[in-house]
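[Solved] Which block belongs to which protein?

Original post:
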Amino acid sequence: MTYKDVLKDLKNDCLDNLYLFYGKEYYLIENTIDKIKQKMIDKAFEDLNFQFIDGKETNVDMIINACETLPFMGEKRMVLIKDLECFFGKRKNISDQEEESLIKYFGNIPSTTHLFFIVTNEIDKRKKIIKMINKYGKVVEFDKLVEKDIYKWIERTFAKYNKQVRKQEISFFLDITGYLEKNSTKSLKDLDNEINKLCSYVGDRNLITTQDIELLAPKSIENNIFSLVESIGTKNSEKALSILSDMLMEGESEIKILYMITRQFRYLFQIKLMEKQGYTPVAIGPKLGLKQFVVKKYLKQALNFNVDILKKALEQCLLTDESIKKGRIDQRMAIELLIAQFAK
C-alpha cells in the first residue's frame, strides 16, 4: 500500500482505524497526516481530538487510554505515536508483555479512534507487532517518489509559490540535485527547501530558468563527476580541473572523487559496448542498475568517447588508484594528471 491509497481511502471516507507509516520520505508522511487531520478533526477542537505521543516517552497504558478517550464535539479522534521503540532495535520503555497487550488491543480499537504509528527508522517486517498491524489495519511505506510522480510534485510545488517551471528545467533540477540517483540521500524536504530558495531568488518573475537552477541548486557529487567527465570528453581540461578544485574545496576526498570518476568511465564503457550489441536504453538500465533517464544521459555523454579511449581511461584510473595507495604520488596531483591525459 502507498500514500496514494491512503489519500484515496480518505477521499472515500473509508480510512482504517489502525496504520503504520514508515519509509524514507518523512516529508510525505507529515503531509499525509496533515491532510487526514484537516478532513477528520475540527480545528476548533484539535487540542482535544488530536493527540501526539512520543513513542520513546510512553507506555502501553498511555496509548490505550488515549485511544479509549471519546472525541469531544466531533465524530473522530486521532492518536499519533511517533517512533515507538518496539518497531525497531532495543527497547527501553515497552516490555515483551506490554507489547503483547498492545497487539491484543489492535482488534478492539474504538470506531471513533484512528491510531497512527509513525516510524522514522527502518522497520523489521518479521516482527509480530507489524504483522498484526497489517492484519487489523494497514502498513504503508512512504518511499522516494518515482520519476513520473516526482515531476508532478515539483511542478505542483513551484505552482504553490505561483511560479512556472518547464519539463526541461524540472529534468535539470533533478539531475543537479541527484534526487533520483540510486544511492541519493536527498529527500522531498531537501527539494522543497531548494524550490523555496529558487522562488525567493527570482522575486516577481514567474518563470524558473535553467540559469536560476544552475546558480542556486546544490550539486550532488554524481552531478559534479558527470560534468567533470563531460569536460574531459569535450577536451576542456580547464573546466574539468576547475570542477575538481571546487569539489575538493567543498570537502570531497580525492579517493572518493577518483572512485566516482572510475565508476563513471566504467558505466560509459559498459553502456557503449551494450549499445553496440543492440541493447536499447530500456534493456540496459536493469542490467546495470540504472534508471532509464540516467542511461539516456550516459549514452549522450558516451558520444564524446570511443571504446578504446574508455578502456584506456579505465585502466589508467586503476593505475592511478594503485599509485596513490602505494604512496608514489600526491593524491590531487594524480587526479589532475589523469584529467590532463584524457582531456588534451
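(Second protein starts here: sequence line, then its C-alpha cells.)
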Amino acid sequence: MTQETSDGVPVSDGFDYPVGPRGANVDVFKTHKIDTVLVDPDYHQSLGYWHPGEDWNGRGGGDTDLGDPIYTVSNGKVVEFGHYSVWGNIVLLEHALPDGTRVWSQYAHLQNILVEQVGQKVSRGQQIGTMGKGDNNRFIAHLHFEIRKKRLPINNWSPTVKDKNAVLENYYSPKDFIANHRPGMLDVPAPEPSPEVAPTQIMQLVLGPQAANPQAGGFFTSETANWNTAEGGYAGTMLWANTSAQNQTHWAEWRPAIPAEGVWEVWAFIPKNKAGTSYARYQVIHAGGQTEVPVNQQGNPGKWEILGQFRFAPGKGYVRLTNVTGELPPTTVAFDSVCWTKVGG
C-alpha cells in the first residue's frame, strides 16, 4: 500500500523514465534518445526560446515511435489533462517525495490520454498515454517531457521560455532528476497508518537489526555462522542470506512488546540491497492464528510493504521470515525492519 500525503498525493518511491521497456536493469537509451534538452542552446538559436524540458524520440527516427506507450515516472496524482492549442494532448501530474518536496511532471504532444479524471492516483510505471505529434499533427512524433519545481499552468510557455534564468528557476533537467531519484535511492519514512482507520494517538513499534529499543521488543535470528550484512536497510545495516528451495538454514523473528490489545497494521521494510527474491514468505503470528504473506522483495526495494491488519495482545504474536522461498541460489532474501502501528481497539 502506497503512503499518501495529507492532501492525497501518493508518496514517491523513486523515479523511472517516461518511455522505453520496463524493468529495474533496462537501459532505455538503447531504444530511445533525447534530441532536445533543458535550455538547449541549439533550440534557442533556432527558435529564440529556452526549452523547459526534454524531447524524447525513438531511435528509429521519424514517426517510428508514434503510438509508443508513455508511462508516469513516479507515484502521483493527476492535476490536469486535456487538449491544448499547439501542444495537443497534455497530462500534468503532482508527485510528493518522502522529504516533503513536491514536483510536477508534464507529458505533452500525446496521441492518446489514458487517465480518466483529475485527482486520479497513478503508480510509477503506469501507462498514461501514447506518443503523439501535437495539435493537428504539427510535429514529428515525440514526447515533450518536463519536471517542474513549481505548480505552473499545464501549458506554461511564454514569457517564461524567453528568460533562461526563469526556466532554470522553475524546471529541473528531467534526465538528471530521474538519475538522482531512482527507485531505492530515496529515504522512505516509516509507514503511517491507513487514513481511514488512523487513531488520534499513534502507537508504533519498529524492530530490526539496527533497532536497539528494548521497550519496542526484540529482533532474533538463527545461530547460523554465515549471515551476511549489507548497507541500505531502514536504519543502516541489514541482514541477508541465499534462498533455499526447501531446506531452512536462516530465519529471523521480530517479536514486538505489544503495549495494548487491539488491531495493529504490520509493515515490512524492503531494503535497497540484496532483496532478490520475488517470493519472501512472511509468517504473521497473531491472535487469530497464523497468516503467510508473500512479498516480492525484488520489485519493491527501499519501500515499506504492508503485510496486513491483525489483532495482537501483549506478549503474543510476532513475524517470522526464513530463507525458504522455493528458489535456488544465487537469489537472495533480505531481513530488515518490521513496523507495527495500532489502528483499532
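Accepted answer:
You had them paired correctly. Confirming on the second one: The chain has three helices and 23 strands.
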